[in-house]
């Protein structure tokens, strides 16, 4: 069992005093399922084109899940996170030929673009794998040998529709006709719309049809194996249909850019089998130590590759005597101003331009705040500016500025909390009591926020976690606005205790927000927590005691000097409104 990271503090309940756990990271709340290790993966991205915001979104989802886990379970050795590039296949072979390059030259060029993007976006991966690496070739050929030794591969004539763009075979039911450039009807994939061609060749074939019932049992016994639920149901529906055997190789004369079938150079291993094994390569397969990481694995994937990850991959793993991954988190796609991103429309959004324009943390926040895994999300510039100015610059940054400004907090410290002004018993009255009912609601909301956020992360609803944080930020601003500390006087014996208490509560709320925002906006959160004087060893969820003085416990921050003022937490992007506000004030 994972050690409990929860901290217990007294809180008021309707039935009297009881214990509530804040910042809990118990397995039930965190999704660790009792695993001592956790391994997060993105898909490996195809290098036939430069990265776009959909690729970055996949990486950010995985990064946020991984960072949140690290906050719950300290120690980098217990968490791994891999991403990388998929560099074999017919598409790469054709794209390289079109560009007049050797396939490896194209792979080197585009893989470097993904690596650079992820570095700039602060993706905290522990491994960047390329399928052209020697270690991966060893893993793939060993995996193939295991399937062969277990009698799951046979050679036969495979005939059907093949989609080069999607690198997959399609049954007749998944093919439709669309009018092509010449005006004649052309066969295309029903799901992707990409052209298909009729193919007949001798290949190695995997006995996929044997795994329909084992896959149904796996999903039936693990209702959270695929999240969100609609995608889980989609896979179950697929398994109600015929599950034909799967071609897992191509003729080398047709596809030479790939890993050869062991002992048969006339065949190249199917690109999807090759690519999927990367998840094992990263953790050391076929060496025995890989079993300490497998299957404590969470795959983060786009909905377009669900069948490969939820049917083919688990079946291949079962065939090789391995268990399917612990979780498969599925997300939808991004559109641009209501249209699908495509090179032909010229509306593909360059993520590096967005990181420059909106800042790294700003664009991370936007994608994770607005991205809803269940359905496609829309991008346009005005939406980004409006969200970031409202929630990061005005609400969060404004709150920090208010509570640390010299005019309100001239000592530059974490002021003292006065229990007489803000008693833990709402029924208590007295000359010093200034607290209002809404203030108790704020304390309850922020106190329960870490557990609420952990639940949202477990359910792959990071957007809801950020929504909950944003709601509490608004409540805290309301608290400060209600009590207007700028109207209180530190020199007044009546005002000073309450003024200190208002600032103390607001700073405690900010500390919780900064801690919880670390997985999404790591640099902004670091800036916020550093301004509050919170050391790097006090930023884990296990150390997140919220407002201990309210519950009668000492607060390690009380009286502590604030950190240096390094300027605005998040400068406004819409400078026109900033100029209007300044003009109004003058």
Explain this structure.
This protein has 586 residues and is of the alpha/beta class. It has 18 helices and 20 strands. Strands 5-4-3-16-17-11 form a six-stranded parallel beta sheet, sandwiched between helices. The radius of gyration is 27 Å and the shape is elongated. It starts with 6 loop residues before the first strand and ends with a helix. The relative contact order is 0.12. The N terminus and C terminus are likely disordered.
Mean pLDDT: 89
| Poorly predicted regions | 1-34, 577-586
The number of helices is 18
Global geometry = elongated
Main beta sheet: 6 strands, parallel
* Portion in beta strands: 15-25%
Structural class: alpha/beta
Q: Rg from C-alpha positions?
A: 27 Å
Spatial gap, N to C terminus? 60 Å
List the strand order in the largest sheet. 5-4-3-16-17-11
């Amino acid at each position: 069992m994972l050690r409990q990271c929860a901290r217990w503090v007294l809180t008021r309940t309707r039935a009297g005093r009881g214990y509530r756990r804040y910042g809990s990271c118990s397995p039930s709340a965190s999704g660790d399922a009792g695993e001592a290790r956790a391994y997060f993966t993105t898909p490996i991205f195809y290098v036939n084109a430069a990265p776009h915001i959909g690729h970055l979104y996949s990486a950010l989802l995985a990064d946020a899940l991984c960072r949140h886990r690290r906050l719950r379970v300290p120690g980098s050795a217990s968490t791994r996170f891999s991403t990388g590039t998929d560099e074999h296949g017919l598409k790469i072979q054709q794209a390289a030929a079109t560009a007049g390059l050797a396939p490896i030259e194209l792979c080197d060029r585009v893989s470097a673009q993904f690596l650079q993007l992820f570095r700039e976006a602060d993706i905290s991966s522990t491994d960047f794998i390329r399928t052209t690496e020697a270690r991966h070739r060893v893993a793939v050929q060993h995996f193939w040998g295991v399937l062969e030794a277990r009698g799951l591969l046979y050679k036969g004539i495979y005939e059907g529709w093949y989609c080069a763009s999607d690198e997959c075979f399609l049954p007749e039911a998944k093919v439709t006709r669309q009018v092509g450039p010449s005006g004649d009807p052309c066969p295309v994939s029903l799901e992707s719309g990409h052209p298909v061609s009729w193919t007949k060749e001798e290949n190695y074939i995997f006995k996929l049809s044997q795994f329909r019932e084992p896959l149904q049992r796996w999903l039936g016994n693990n209702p959270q194996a695929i999240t969100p639920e609609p995608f889980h149901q989609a896979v179950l529906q697929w398994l109600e249909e015929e599950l034909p055997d799967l071609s897992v190789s191509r003729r080398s004369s047709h596809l030479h850019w790939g890993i050869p079938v062991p002992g048969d150079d006339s065949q190249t291993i199917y690109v999807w089998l090759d690519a999927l094994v990367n998840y094992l390569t990263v953790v050391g397969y076929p060496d025995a130590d890989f079993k300490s990481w497998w299957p404590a694995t969470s795959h983060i994937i786009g909905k377009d590759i669900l069948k490969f990850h939820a049917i083919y991959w688990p079946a291949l793993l079962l065939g090789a005597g391995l268990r399917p991954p612990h979780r498969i988190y599925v997300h939808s796609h991004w559109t641009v101003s209501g249209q699908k991103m495509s090179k032909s429309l010229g509306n593909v959004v360059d993520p590096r331009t967005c990181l420059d324009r909106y800042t790294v943390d700003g664009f991370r926040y936007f994608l994770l705040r607005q991205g809803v895994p269940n359905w496609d999300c829309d991008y346009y510039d005005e939406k980004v500016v409006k969200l970031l100015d409202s929630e990061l610059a005005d609400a969060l940054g404004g709150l920090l500025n208010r509570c640390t400004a010299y005019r309100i907090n001239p000592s530059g410290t974490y002021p003292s909390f006065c229990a007489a002004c803000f008693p833990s018993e709402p029924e208590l009255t007295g000359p010093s009591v200034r607290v209002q009912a809404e203030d108790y609601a704020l304390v309850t909301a922020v106190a329960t926020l870490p557990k609420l956020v952990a639940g949202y992360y477990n359910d792959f609803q990071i957007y809801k976690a950020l929504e909950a944080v944003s709601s509490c930020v608004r409540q805290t601003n309301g608290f400060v606005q209600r009590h207007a500390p700028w109207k209180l006087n530190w020199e007044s014996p009546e005002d000073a205790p309450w003024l200190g208490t208002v600032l103390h509560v607001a700073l405690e709320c900010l500390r919780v927000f900064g801690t919880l925002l670390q997985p999404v906006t790591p640099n902004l959160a670091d800036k916020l927590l550093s301004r509050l004087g919170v050391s790097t060893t006090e930023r884990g969820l296990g150390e997140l005691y919220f407002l201990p003085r309210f519950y009668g416990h000492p607060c390690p921050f009380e009286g502590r000097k604030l950190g240096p003022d390094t300027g605005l937490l998040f400068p406004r992007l819409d400078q026109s409104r900033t100029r209007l506000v300044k003009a109004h004030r003058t």
